[in-house]
Design goal:
- The complex is a heterodimer of chains A (333) and B (440).
- With 333 residues, chain A is mainly alpha-helical.
- Helices cover 56% and strands 1% of the residues of chain A.
- Chain B is an alpha/beta fold.
- Chain B has 14 helices and 17 strands.
- In chain B, strands 1-14-13-17-15-16 form a 6-stranded mixed β-sheet, sandwiched between helices.
- Classes of the chains: A mainly alpha (333), B alpha/beta (440).
- Chains A and B meet through helix 1 of A and strand 15, strand 16, helix 9, helix 13 and helix 14 of B.
């Protein structure tokens, strides 16, 4: 029996599921570093986060929307992984449940599910937790590569937290007890490989970049958003650093610390919540970069990546409306 | 330095398995079915009657009106039927059925293999010969060549591009033609140069056709005014607008023709037909056709008489079994699936593909994930996802504002879409709706 269909009669191998699987694979190196650093607690957080995200999606789709389950498309797994990446390892399990509820039910399913949400679901979950439980969300563990069961909580600040508290007047006297100290800032190499405190998935620039390279090779993402995002942060902090010679603007520290690389490679490249065209993506990435720098330098919080991306998410539809590809044959002479 | 177009494009697997296999004469079938409309425009007027004896090259039907083309017999034999017969499209079309008897050609045709280099003096003589041979664009559209090649007084062509790009997977008919009839094509280009009064013909070949590039480059050294340009292997590099952009950097404005920006694009098959028409007085009654596909047992490029049933070619390639899910006339990106294999090869058929279900199965669409791949792949710079949304909601004004009518129907968007949304169907529907609205 011959069949008929309209053209085209062949299709690219890469479907939605393949893309989602590739993203999961790309996130694995950073997950490994997180578990290596923070041990069992990190593993428990990651597993809880993934399981609860999948659970919330299943419950919403099956019992609220009464539709066939969509958990097979891997997107809830990615949200769970990314949410865990944005949490400190020591966070209590019940908070993860709340965070994943906000991410999946409020952040994603309320808008209509995959492809229709305005804000990055994992960031919705993280920011909700961050605002609601600021203490638990800023309890960092010291990395320890030798003790898997270690729960050594370091109630200090992350690199960015330290930088935040240095200002011109106090830098001379910042050695007073309890105050963050410049000498606690890890060196570039430790920040690059991830031997530093912070959220589970954000610590290792190396692992995240490896994942990013994998996504580039698999053509899941293009280079534009990571390049323009990281580039603009580097550029603006360099300008500030050159103008003031103040260590708190050190561009390389800003590039390697906090959730910047995680955000630039994995969160700001989320298809659904970013513009459709290359031109739009570049504007989106520049906006993220500028907002990140402004929040880091002048905001109340030490870290601005999640807020920057969420704010730019809200602008995506507008960017799509005004910046699109030039149609062939409309070039002005 | 290979040239390419700047917007979009995709890289599907090439499957050019027949590119090294020399072409074979398909031979004579028992019957041929010759449609009187194998071109864009009005059908030709039938001149023969049932029972008439015809020879190879006998004029069967005469061009009717300005946009039309002559149709000649591709075999010798007897006209046994003139009626509505099922064509590859599934529609019934007026066809002349000829029972093949012997293989005798009209006397005026020069069937020798000798190369003729004496180009006729006047453009009028050239265009008359092209018209008498019923030459149409052989790349797929089938626009009558004499009309395309008659340039209005107020227009001026400064570059002739000969399209030797075969960017559809599997197809190698143009590739084989360039390798086997290289010098004829170069002389054909010289003929067209003379017709337009220019010295600037460029034969564009994509970089995976190494042999064709090599042979034609060597020949063009001996001919002034014909040059080879190598283009990147990228789909749809062979699209007229994409090729113009790659070679000249110019863009055809929306709703305009290539001649408005001084370009003219002709397929290599057409140029070869022009050579045969002008130098050999040979009407267009045969062409190269690739029979291939992942379910084809012995893929092969054939030299086929127009009107030969498709099944006659498939049988020579080992037939097809129940694993063959689709038979495509043309390439896998833009061709049409057919169910009636008795339908004939026409002047514009470039290939017959037997495809498996695994390869050609239309996947189930899921929700758009806004990845933007359709936008990145569109060679016209359109936003296929938006055309899909607007078409579903019948927003005609909005469709017009995003240039939906400029879609060239290459299928890049539907090929690349990871959510498997039938974007090309929406684009085609949008174009039809816009046309209907314009007609009102």
């Amino acid at each position: 029996m011959l069949k008929v269909s309209t053209a085209p009669h062949m299709f690219a191998k890469q479907d939605t599921n393949a893309i989602m699987k590739d993203v999961v694979i790309a996130l694995l190196p950073a997950a490994c570093v997180g578990i290596f650093n923070f041990g069992l607690t990190a593993l428990i957080t990651i597993i809880t986060s993934i399981a609860s995200c999948v659970m919330w999606e299943y419950l919403t789709v099956r019992y609220l929307l009464k539709k066939p389950s969509t958990i097979n498309d891997y997107s809830a797994i990615i949200t769970g992984l990314l949410l865990a990446f944005n949490l400190p390892a020591t966070i209590p399990v019940w908070m993860i449940l709340i965070g994943s509820f906000m991410a999946i039910v409020v952040g994603k399913m309320a808008f209509g599910g995959l492809g229709k949400n305005v804000f990055n679901p994992a960031l919705v979950g993280r920011v909700f937790l961050f605002i609601s439980f600021p203490v638990q969300m800023t309890m960092w563990m010291k990395p320890n590569w030798h003790d898997f069961f270690n729960r050594d909580i370091q109630t200090g600040a992350t690199t960015l937290g330290i930088l935040k508290h240095i200002d011109a007047s106090s830098s001379a006297t910042s050695l007073t007890h309890g105050n963050p100290d410049i000498s606690q800032i890890p060196d570039y190499w430790h920040m690059f490989i991830g031997y530093t405190g912070g959220c589970i998935g954000e610590v290792s620039a190396l692992a995240l970049i490896l994942g990013g390279i994998y996504l580039l090779i698999k053509k899941v993402i293009t280079w534009h958003i990571p390049f323009y995002y990281l580039g603009s942060v580097f550029l603006f902090s360099s300008l500030m650093w050159l103008a003031t010679q103040d260590i708190k603007f050190d561009p390389i520290t800003h590039l390697l610390s906090g959730g910047l690389i995680l955000g630039a490679i994995f969160m700001a490249t989320d298809y659904t919540t970013t513009p459709m065209t290359t031109k739009g993506k570049i504007i989106f990435a520049l906006g993220c970069g500028i907002l990140t720098v402004i929040i880091r330098f002048y905001g109340a919080y030490p870290e601005g990546v999640s807020f920057a991306i969420l704010i730019m998410n809200a602008f995506s539809p507008l960017i799509d409306k005004f910046y699109y590809t030039r149609v062939y044959g409309t070039r002005k002479k | 330095m290979t040239k390419t177009f700047s917007l979009g494009g995709i890289f599907p697997k090439k499957y050019k398995i027949t590119s090294e296999i020399p072409s074979k004469d398909a031979g004579l079938p028992e019957y041929v079915y010759i449609p009187v409309k194998q071109h864009i425009g009005t059908p030709a007027k039938i001149l023969v009657n049932k029972g008439d004896k015809v020879k190879v090259g006998t004029l069967l039907a005469d061009a009717d009106g300005v946009i039309s083309a002559d149709v000649h017999s591709s075999v010798s034999g007897e006209v046994i039927r003139i009626d509505e017969t099922e064509a590859a499209s599934g529609y019934f079309e007026n066809m002349i059925t000829i029972k093949v008897q012997g293989d005798e050609a009209e006397d005026y045709i020069d069937l020798s293999q000798t190369l003729c280099k004496e180009i006729p003096e006047t453009p009028q003589e050239i265009i008359d010969k092209i018209r008498k041979a019923g030459v149409v664009g052989m790349g797929g559209a089938g626009y009558p060549t004499p009309i395309k090649d008659t340039i209005p007084q107020d227009k001026k062509i400064d570059i002739l591009i000969i399209n030797g790009i075969e960017c559809e997977p599997w197809l190698t008919s143009d590739d084989r033609l360039m390798v086997e009839k290289a010098e004829e094509i170069v002389i054909g280009a010289k003929i067209l140069n003379k017709l337009f009064g220019i010295q600037n013909a460029i034969i564009a070949i994509d970089e995976n056709k190494l042999k064709a590039i090599d042979i034609i480059s060597n020949i063009t050294k001996r001919y002034v005014g014909v040059n080879v340009r190598v283009c990147k292997t990228k789909y749809p590099q062979g699209g007229e607008k994409q090729l113009i952009s790659a070679i000249t950097g110019r863009e055809v404005p929306s709703g305009k023709l290539p001649m408005d920006i001084g370009c003219l694009v002709q397929n290599v098959g057409t140029v070869f037909a022009v050579y045969e028409a002008v130098m050999k007085n040979k009407p267009l009654y045969e062409r190269y056709v690739t029979v291939s596909g992942d379910m084809c047992k012995t893929p092969q490029t054939f030299k086929v008489r127009i009107g030969t049933p498709i099944s006659f070619l498939i049988d020579q390639c080992g037939g097809y079994d129940e694993k063959t899910a689709q038979i495509i006339l043309g390439g896998p990106m833009m061709g049409n699936s057919i169910i009636h294999t008795q339908a004939p090869i026409t002047k514009t058929s470039s290939g017959v593909l037997l495809l498996s279900n695994e390869l050609s199965k239309r996947p189930t669409p899921t929700d758009c994930i806004r990845c933007g791949k359709c936008v990145d792949s569109c060679p016209m710079g359109l936003r296929p996802y938006l055309i899909g949304i607007y078409t579903r909601n019948n927003l005609l004004e909005e469709l017009k504002s995003i240039h939906a009518q400029d879609c060239i129907e290459c299928g890049c968007c539907a090929y690349i879409c990871p959510a498997r949304i039938p974007l090309l169907d929406f684009c085609k529907l949008a174009k039809i709706e816009l046309k209907n609205k314009q007609g009102k």
